[in-house]
Specification:
2 copies of one chain form a homodimer. Chain A is of the alpha/beta class and 525 residues long. Chain A is 38% helix and 21% strand. The longest helix of chain A has 24 residues.
């Protein structure tokens, strides 16, 4: 398929006329053809208008039909074949195996949401019987959740497939019954066009209203205008704290404020308790170094903070971790901008008082290569130095040495909200761990034991979210089945005649959805 | 029980020293003894600190114990006896039967949440089995929802019991496992103290941490400081648009922004379709007048807008509605301030061009008596006059005369977000109704058929919420079982050893909560 440098507005392919942009090959720091035309205000208006027009019919698609649409999107992405992987490699600097794995994740995510849609539990269907004899009589009340309306999605640079045009935000919004307008990430424009065309084709394949999906191309201004557009009712974003907060401000300043689900900054503390280190400091150190450098450290759940108690087992761990990090090569980062930020970040860390550089990985050979860094400091310095808590996006981490279990708790209470917190503990560490867990729960969306936080499983029980600033809304997740909840709102129908009832609330439950009837959950099938 | 003019900070009763305030008897426009001391910054700090301290233990209370606590609060409110009703009558101007009914609603609401807690569906407990043989292996993932943290609750003036100190916000936050700090509404300080003491006693009766509940007294500044306090993690509010938006701004400006659930302004359009009017214009008119004037029109769901098609049946309805409104007496409003606003509102409406006064109720005899008002206008005037869409809190409504079904749809698309929309329709009106329903669904949280929106049932399927500006967050409800969802956030435990797992996620499910296991819902009991 020819990559044409076009936006997708409903079923049309449109070359934007408000300037041009090109993707960059970060390994060589050169631009990649073709040039992409940027959206005019009229292009954006058309995409949002179509989405608004599509909403009434799309949200009432039968669950089976909506599930088939999500599966068709998955199939159409697979049908793109090797061209998608090749273009994504060129635009992101990520290796082939990683991108093939990411494609599998993207496709499985769409299929999981197809299952979620078929199951129908997300509807929260709830029926309370009328009580005509009661004084006063109780009406017949039936509730279901519907989509909030058209959703704006911003692709992330670090997952050009799984968190981008057909990523988790798009999949969960489409599953919820919301049309989607994606703003393509400038770092992978060609990848975005290819995946966008797969979705656009699925819309036609399934006979849906063309406004169900559009893909616009543009700069920060177009992104802001998209969030400000009255047709848009929610926003999904994965990226930097600054970028996320800018969108929140725009969304709050609207005449009708709307929710923004921004997944932003997290340093993902890992607590290494003494019993666990005794059972295998070297093994844990290797696991840490692998997790730190995976994807050039460009994961939201990268382990950027290690916290441990002074002692011989910590010394053993530190030496092994330093050796493991030293053995890691430098690898290409996603964009020149991200690379510059990382270099600035390690420069800042290296210049801090009482912060020691424990290890550096191998020097880089490509243009945007990131050299892994591991630092060490003491607990008092950590607590007194806000810069040590800033996310440094890339393969950089800080080991905080504590003297007492109380120090561990001080660190747990001190850090900001996180996507994840991790505890390495054996039964011997139970007392210390029990002292940490309440704080970890208050501060993070996912608590791991004896593992590392990179690798976010797409599953029913996953939580990829957490208190501010890890996200702008800790009540939700952006990965896993319940991500659909972000794009729903409840509607109650009181004394509705049968002809006005949505079928999921009808007496005979033709779509066999689970329902809470007079307070008791009834499985649907 | 002596009303002492005190705040309740944990188990202490404290006379605030930052100035004094008194409640007002609105029927006579005189102050009521005693004076209440207002909170100092130190008082507020102490209440919030205690709430933060209570959170770790309170959120881990066994479901049965938490349910018993809610039931104890209900019992302790009943045990206050007639003193509560007498004081509430004096402070609100509401009649005895209404307040006794409201007490019943308040107690039933607490008991409903006790059931919701025992059932455990709100936890969203979800388990995904480990897949050790898969490549790569899948971890064991278990998710549950926990309370977001201490919640600030602002009582509403119009329901001194059901939407105040022990109202829906408090009940749902306590049910979610969140400590609560209530700011008493200045209009019913004595009622607040009495109810507060019932909750305070229940905390002691049940052996909970004293920080689970506090009640502070103060002005707008103290309310803002409460929302800004770092220990507070969410806010529940029912009141004016201005008041709600002020709290949203404070919450958004925090270092850690937090959600505000503000239930604000709604005019609750009622569409009267021709078939329905033909079957009983006079009956519908009487139902409308009763709903309009109930509680002096001081309901969030008051029917402030009627929309109908020109024709003989509308003429019949208008005449009957005018007669029914004329027959209604004036009744005392809640506060002198609310009464002044209402008077200003009807003054503004009466002065509008092309807006006709159809009927006025009887003249008032008490100080803050509101005279019911019914206006009439044509659709073009309505669409061109924003003032006709402003909520005029009190017994005032506007009838909009349309010429075509398309006009009805224009009104449905034109109005802002609403708590409710109502359709009076028979099977003959089906086509017109079907044309309206998609817009009504996009604009309102509850859609009623052939009834009136006042009277919000406390039930599982109720939605008392809706798009902005009816609330600040359309994804939720402030009445009904799912109001608990507002104060929860999910946490995932990955590969947790048995000793670290919350009991609701343990293999043997000792609390018998419903759980989604590998994607399938399993009822608990």
């Amino acid at each position: 398929m020819q990559i044409a440098g076009e936006m997708l507005i409903g079923q049309a392919a449109v070359k934007g006329s408000a300037g041009q942009m090109k993707a960059t090959d970060p390994a060589r720091n050169i631009e990649i053809e073709p040039a992409f035309g940027m959206a005019t205000a009229a292009d954006l208006q058309r995409a949002c208008e179509l989405a608004a027009q599509a909403f009434d019919s799309y949200r009432e698609t039968a669950l089976e039909k909506r599930a088939q649409f999500l599966e068709q999107v998955a199939q159409n992405i697979l049908d793109l074949g090797p061209q998608l992987i090749e273009r994504a490699m060129q635009e992101s600097g990520l290796p082939q195996a990683r991108l093939e794995g990411e494609r599998g994740r993207t496709v499985n995510q769409l299929r999981l949401f197809a299952k979620v849609v078929r199951d129908g539990l997300f509807l929260g269907a709830t029926l309370d019987s009328a009580l005509p004899e009661r004084v006063p009589p109780r009406s017949d009340l039936r509730m279901r959740k519907i989509g909030v309306g058209p959703v704006a999605v911003f692709g992330a640079s670090n997952f050009p497939l799984a968190f981008s045009v057909a990523g988790g935000d798009t999949a969960s919004a489409l599953a919820a019954g919301c049309p989607v307008v994606v703003k393509a990430h400038p770092a992978h424009l060609g990848t975005s066009e290819l995946v966008g065309k797969a979705i656009q084709k699925a819309v036609a394949d399934c006979g849906l209203h063309e406004g169900v999906f559009s893909l616009v191309i543009g700069d920060v201004q177009i992104g802001g205008d998209l969030v400000a557009h009255p047709a848009i009712k929610a926003v999904g974003f994965t990226g930097s704290r600054g970028g996320g907060l800018a969108l929140v401000r725009i969304a709050q300043a609207r005449k009708e404020p709307i929710p923004v689900y921004a997944e932003m900054a997290s340093i993902n503390p890992v607590f290494l308790l003494p019993g666990a280190l005794k059972t295998g400091a070297a093994r844990i150190a290797q696991g840490f170094a692998d997790s730190l450098t995976m994807g050039s450290g460009q994961f939201c759940t990268n382990p950027g903070l290690l916290v441990a108690l002074e002692g011989p087992e910590l010394n053993e761990f530190a030496a092994a971790a330093a050796a493991a990090v030293q053995a890691k090569p430098s690898t290409t980062m996603l964009t020149p901008g991200i690379h510059q930020s990382y270099e600035a970040g390690v420069g800042k860390l290296s210049a801090l008082d009482k912060v020691e550089l424990l290890a550096q990985g191998g020097a880089g050979s490509t243009a945007c290569a990131a050299q892994p860094h591991l630092y060490s400091t003491d607990v008092e310095t950590f607590l007194a130095t806000p810069a040590l808590e800033d996310e440094n996006f890339g393969p950089s981490s800080v080991l905080v040495r504590c003297r007492t279990a109380a120090d561990l708790r001080r660190v747990a209470e001190h850090v900001e909200g996180q996507l994840t917190s991790t505890v390495h503990a054996t039964a011997d560490d139970r007392e210390i761990a029990a002292g940490l867990l309440p704080a970890l729960e208050r501060k993070a969306g996912r608590i791991l034991f004896n593992g590392f936080p990179t690798g976010v499983e797409v599953a029913h029980a996953m939580v990829h979210g957490g208190p501010f600033p890890s996200t702008s809304d800790p009540r939700t997740t952006s990965v896993g089945a319940t991500a659909i909840d972000r794009f729903l709102r409840p509607v109650c129908y009181q004394d509705a005649p049968e002809w006005a009832l949505p079928s999921t609330l009808a007496n005979d439950n033709p779509q066999k959805v689970p329902r809470v009837i007079d307070g008791t959950i009834q499985p649907g099938a």
